[in-house]
Design goal:
about 100 residues; alpha/beta; three-stranded parallel sheet; 3 helices; about 40% helix; about 15% strand; globular
């Protein structure tokens, strides 16, 4: 799924996506490209935690923008770190303001 930068993909949308990924209902999404969106560290951590549950088949992730910075990346990683069965293979952190 590609979410173009001109679309509104904010923290609320990330929270809703995280809930779907955590539920295991979405069994087909393998790539999420949402670079260029201003997403809060809290939303990134929630997304990381949802992916860490291992119910998603997402393998490629690009999310955030130049405002993401260290705080946002650390939040995402904090969520991902809880996983024992993470399927994520590629996280694009380019142009994230680190």
């Amino acid at each position: 799924m590609v979410i173009l930068p001109m679309k509104n993909f904010n923290a609320d949308a990330v929270h809703r996506l995280a809930a779907v990924l955590a539920s295991g209902v979405n069994t087909h999404l393998r790539t999420l490209s949402a670079s260029g969106h201003d997403v809060t560290p809290e939303a990134l951590e929630k997304l990381g935690s949802a992916l860490a549950m291992g119910k998603s088949k997402l393998v490629h992730l690009a999310i955030g923008n130049s405002n993401t910075g260290d705080v946002g990346v650390v939040a995402l990683c904090r969520g991902l770190a809880t996983s024992e069965s993470l399927k994520l293979e590629h996280v694009d952190l380019s142009w994230k303001g680190m």
